[in-house]
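TA notes, week 10

Several of you asked for a full example with nothing omitted. So below is the full record: structure tokens for the whole chain, then the designed sequence directly under it. When grading your own attempts, check the secondary structure regions first.
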């Protein structure tokens, strides 16, 4: 097919690129997120944008190699999406959003139109999605569309002379166009002079301070040593992965007035409607203030009331008196000791096992 069709759902329109799209393409490709996660040339010029809309996209249609559409919404250029023809009724999906349209839902609508076109008029059987590892916005969009994450490939995607780790997912013609797995949210929780919020990249320095401190290093024996900023960023990234995999939620513990990270707390090891585990650590300058005891109570109430589990567990090294006080202050009962059950810095030690049933929850003031 040499000319792109025009597709619309009444809110979003997909059409062929026009010369007057070039300024929008330029703005999109000069945006920091576009430069970070795509392979657009840096620097990107108006000449590059004009070449793209006037030559590259029409040639893709003429050669039947890439079916690219401009996304139009609210009367404005909103980005580009395409299917790259891989032959044998297979294609790769690609998309990029202009900064103004992010968070509006318009790109998802555009991609649904694109997939309907691919599986319909183009008679595709399989669409593959690739993204550089860490591009959570792209991964969540693919998840919403029904793509199944097939895994990670080390050193696979190229960008400006570098080879990066990648995620890959697939969508088949007859697959549901809806999420096929659970993606958890991290709600903001506030009570008792605390604010629990999602973790952010700018928490990294505080995490480094906590995780290089001697006491933290001793009781959290699996921490890297020495512990640096890259380790903190990896930890933050892993908390986002936890949400995407539906396996748990971790919060930064803060005070409402300054938002500085004072520790982290989260739930994991979840059996829906049955149980989950809570774990935590405290920044050194926040110890002795009852902060983590209050955070533990807040998260315990959250998982019992909102997650709907009947049993909550928590574990601590037998010798970690401060951690055990946090657990016991919230009504948890010790039900056993696992010998050599936990790793500390100088080896393994016994672990105290605690749990709390929903009907045993203590009254809160």
């Amino acid at each position: 097919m040499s000319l792109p069709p025009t597709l619309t759902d009444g809110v979003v329109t997909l059409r062929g690129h026009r010369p007057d799209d070039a300024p929008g393409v330029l703005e999109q490709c000069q945006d920091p997120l576009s430069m970070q996660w795509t392979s657009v040339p840096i620097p990107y010029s108006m000449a590059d944008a004009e070449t793209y809309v006037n030559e590259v996209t029409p040639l893709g249609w003429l050669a039947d190699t890439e079916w690219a559409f401009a996304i139009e919404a609210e009367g404005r250029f909103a980005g580009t999406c395409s299917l790259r023809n891989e032959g044998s009724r297979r294609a790769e999906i690609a998309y990029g959003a202009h900064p103004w349209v992010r968070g509006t839902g318009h790109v998802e609508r555009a991609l649904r139109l694109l997939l309907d076109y691919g599986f319909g008029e183009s008679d595709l059987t399989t669409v593959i999605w690739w993204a550089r590892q860490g591009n959570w916005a792209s991964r969540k969009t693919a998840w919403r569309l029904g793509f199944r994450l097939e895994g990670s490939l080390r050193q696979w995607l190229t960008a400006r002379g570098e080879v990066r780790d990648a995620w890959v997912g697939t969508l088949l013609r007859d697959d549901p166009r809806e999420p096929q797995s659970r993606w958890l949210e991290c709600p903001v929780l506030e009570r008792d002079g605390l604010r629990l919020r999602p973790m952010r990249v700018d928490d990294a320095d505080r995490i480094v301070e906590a995780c290089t401190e001697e006491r933290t290093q001793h009781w959290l024996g699996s921490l890297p040593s020495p512990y640096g900023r890259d380790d903190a960023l990896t930890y933050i990234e892993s908390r986002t992965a936890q949400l995407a995999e539906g396996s748990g939620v971790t919060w930064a513990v803060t005070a409402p007035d300054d938002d500085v990270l004072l520790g982290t707390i989260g739930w994991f090891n979840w059996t829906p409607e049955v149980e989950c585990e809570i774990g935590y650590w405290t920044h050194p300058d926040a110890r002795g203030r009852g902060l983590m005891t209050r955070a533990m109570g807040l998260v315990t109430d959250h998982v019992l009331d909102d997650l709907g589990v009947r049993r909550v567990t928590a574990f601590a090294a037998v010798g970690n008196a401060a951690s055990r006080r946090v657990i016991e202050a919230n009504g948890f009962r010790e039900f056993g000791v696992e010998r050599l059950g936990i790793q500390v810095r100088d080896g393994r030690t016994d672990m105290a096992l605690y749990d709390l049933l929903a009907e045993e929850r203590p009254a809160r003031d």
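The mean pLDDT is 96. Use that as a sanity check on your answer.
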